[in-house]
Design a protein that fits this description.
Number of helices: 11
Structural class: alpha/beta
CATH topology of one domain: FAD/NAD(P)-binding domain
CATH superfamily of one domain: FAD/NAD(P)-binding domain
Helix content: 25-40%
Order of helices and strands: HEHEEHHEHHEHEEHEEEEEEEEEHHEEEH
CATH architecture of one domain: 3-Layer(bba) Sandwich
Number of strands: 19
Bound molecules: flavin-adenine dinucleotide
Strand order of the largest sheet: 5-6-4-14-15-16-13-17
Radius of gyration: 22 Å
Length: about 375
């Protein structure tokens, strides 16, 4: 039961954003930058954002050679270039908004491991063609190929598994936790309200506004706004069951400190399905979704033993052979995919817009998607 005061002053907003991941927070910030007079509320179902934004690897990436080749097989060249542009633009926005030093943005090298497989060797042979295609967008060569044998002492990866190593000249890394902390702090400093532990159960539009119904300790709490932005990524089918969105779980491990690590920077292999980076004296390593697509098509955060075993095996045999790495922690995060690699960014109805389906590139594109979604919302 709400008091007169609560009804009058505490449940009415101009705009409500559902979901406090990178897209929800970036959207709220872009709205406030463009229209500071609006009262903006962000609703998050858990105490912390619980999807992908606080669980990812923190790669500020435009796509590896094998990933871009795979994209060229599945979409038009124009679309591939458009995706690269979106990533570049989004990263620029994120870095300008938050400041490199605040999110530990660094360019310590970004590399792709090219193994002895037929697919990887084909990719190496296609590098010049891919560079030429990307040149108009990047203004310079994206990739450089090196014989792995000649650089082995620099990295320390297994000699027997790798043939080449490809440098990506346009990628960096950041600290995911600091990025999200900065986004939250910035939202608060701009007067954006964030209510956590506030699961939205229904969104009901009528001709005067939108009722956003949240679960408040078992009771319904109805917030009201003129416009709503839905930023719930992999979880959006709870509201729109027919949307072209498939969840994709990602498994990640972090090792205990390892003595004798040689490599620096960020690494991908197998079309971006595997990724690892150095974090101080530790390694963060994740991926392997392609080993068991069916099971990983879930919004459940539990672990997949088959993928965990594969990650451990690759960590020990390919990444740090002979160094006996021990795992300190595991976690999972949930991404959103669909028949297209592009996000769904649209006006759903007169008062509801959405920016969802960020794939494995939300760190890169999230700020740009937030800006476009803000424009859609405030017209
Ligand atoms: C393991 C892993 C590694 C990744 N690595 C990278 C990387 O290196 N680089 C990169 O660019 N991208 C990476 N990504 C992808 C990137 O993290 C995502 O694309 C991005 O975080 C998506 O942001 P989002 O705001 O759209 O969604 P999310 O972060 O999932 O946010 C959605 C939010 O909505 C909330 N929510 C859901 N339902 C409700 C409800 N009913 N009521 C209220 N709130 C609700 C959720 O709790 C969640 O906080 C990775 C993802 C994972 C999982």
């Amino acid at each position: 039961m709400l008091s007169f005061w609560e009804k009058q002053s505490l449940i009415q907003y101009d705009i409500i954003i559902v979901g406090s991941g990178i897209v929800g927070l970036s959207t709220a910030l872009s709205i406030k930058e463009k229209a500071p007079q609006y009262r903006v509320l962000v609703l998050e179902r858990n105490l912390l954002p619980t999807g992908a934004s606080t669980k990812n690897a923190g790669f500020a990436c435009i796509g590896s050679l094998t990933e871009i080749l795979d994209d060229l097989n599945n979409m038009s060249e124009e679309e591939v270039l458009q995706l690269v542009k979106m990533r570049l633009k989004g990263l620029r926005k994120l870095r300008t908004r938050l400041g490199d030093e605040n999110i530990d943005y660094a360019e310590n090298g970004s590399w792709e491991l090219i193994r002895n497989t037929r697919e990887d060797m084909f990719a190496a042979g296609e590098m010049d063609t891919v560079n030429a295609k990307l040149q108009p967008v990047l203004g310079a060569k994206a990739f450089e190929l090196y014989d792995y044998k000649e650089r082995q002492t620099e990295f320390g990866f297994s000699m027997s598994h790798l043939q080449y190593i490809v440098k990506n000249c346009f990628e960096g890394e950041l600290n995911t936790g600091k990025m999200m902390r900065c986004l939250i702090d910035l939202c608060m400093s701009k007067g954006i309200e964030i209510k956590t532990g506030c699961e939205v159960v229904r969104i009901e539009e009528n001709k005067n506004g939108v009722n956003v119904v949240a679960n408040d300790s078992g009771n319904e709490m109805v917030f009201n706004a003129q416009q709503v932005g839905v930023c719930t990524n992999a979880f959006t089918r709870q509201f729109y069951p027919d949307l072209d969105i498939q969840p994709g779980r990602g498994q990640v491990l972090i090792t205990k400190p390892i003595i004798g690590l040689k490599f620096k920077g960020i690494y991908h292999f197998d079309k971006g399905y595997y990724y690892f980076r150095r974090l101080g004296d530790r390694i963060l390593f994740g991926g392997g979704r392609n080993l068991d697509f069916e099971t990983e098509r879930t919004t459940d955060f539990s672990f997949n033993q088959k993928i965990q075993n594969d990650l451990l095996d690759k960590l020990r045999t390919i990444i740090v052979p002979g160094l006996n790495p021990e795992v300190e922690d595991w976690w999972t995060g949930i991404m959103a995919f669909g028949s297209s690699k592009f996000p769904i960014l649209m006006r759903q109805s007169e008062r509801i817009c959405m920016g969802v389906r960020m794939g494995g590139m939300g760190v890169a594109i999230g700020s740009g998607v937030g800006e476009k979604l803000a424009n859609l919302i405030i017209g």
